[in-house]
Amino acid sequence: MDPKSQRVKLNDGHFIPVLGFGTYAPPEVAKREALEFTPFAIEVGFRHIDCAHVYQNEEEIGQVIRSKIADGTVKREDIFCTSKLWLTSLRPELVRPALEKSLKNLQLDYVDLYIMHYPLALKPGEELFPKDENGKLILDSVDVCRTWEALEKCKDAGLTKSIGVSNFNHKQLEKILNKPGLKYKPVCNQVECHPYLNQSKLLDFCKSHEIVLVAYAALGSQRVKEWVNPNHPVLLEDPILSAIAKKHKKTAALVALRYQIQRGVVVLAKGNNKKWIKENIQLYRNLSPVSGFNVEFIYVILNLFPFHCYVMNF
């Protein structure tokens, strides 16, 4: 990690801030929350903004970034902006047009990172989730290696500085890494990762190939009934996490985020509350890995949480 600016070097030579601001929100509030909370996040110090075509708020994110550049808060080079290639655009000929559409919405000449959102293709078209008459998703047959080649061309064209993937397991990553004629390795793999889902094996694999693991849902899975059993424990209410936070006068969220960074993971913190956003940016303070606080809580989490952790996506 670059200690002066809290960045991690990617395998293509570029740097990514260790803490990012996540902009996903339910569709009914995505645009409003983007306009309300993203400018505040930039004002308090966030410089890594994570967005995606499927979030349906890139126009608003772009509006915010341009306004913060215009009022002198930041320069373009200060902002690390990530966007994602959606599943309906995995065919090689659709990759560049999809990126160009995101750039137009974001009002940017380039993004800092463009990643394949999932290793799964859906039928091309305007519908984000195309379904048949029985309500089942309509899949498309696409070789992700061909998609990756199209991403490499986007990098060469200067439309994105770096390229990566999201929600890939190690076998899917190996498929790209072992592809004949590979020009650029994925710089990152963005996956759900938190103390209840620590992704330890996938993290080790990524590190062995100089791929940065980026954690979304770092403060626990979205409490959406389709995703998580409402009877499952809530991460930020965990007694171990709460005890560590209380002892060191930190929030449970800061402990969970710091846990990731000390593992070498880049972490995304979504915020729809200004108090939480302001608290989370405190993670940048005193990031030295040699302190009693750091050593204690990383030891406790790594040694106690696995008793009720589960590891997926490997």
UniProtKB/TrEMBL annotation:
Give one Pfam family, short name only: Aldo_ket_red
Tagged with keyword Oxidoreductase:
yes
Q: Keywords of this protein's UniProt record, alphabetized? A: NADP, Oxidoreductase
Identify the residues that the record assigns to the NADP-dependent oxidoreductase domain, covering every copy.
19-284
Which residues does substrate bind? Answer: H117
Q: Name one GO molecular function term.
A: oxidoreductase activity
- Active site positions: Y55
Task: Enumerate the InterPro entries for this protein.
Answer: AKR, AKR1C, Aldo/ket_reductase_CS, NAD(P)_OxRdtase_dom_sf, NADP_OxRdtase_dom
**Entry keyword GTP-binding:** no
Superkingdom as given in the UniProt entry: Eukaryota
Site (Lowers pKa of active site Tyr) at K84
Q: Belongs to which family?
A: Belongs to the aldo/keto reductase family.
The protein, known as: NADP-dependent oxidoreductase domain-containing protein
Organism annotation:
Muntiacus muntjak (Barking deer)
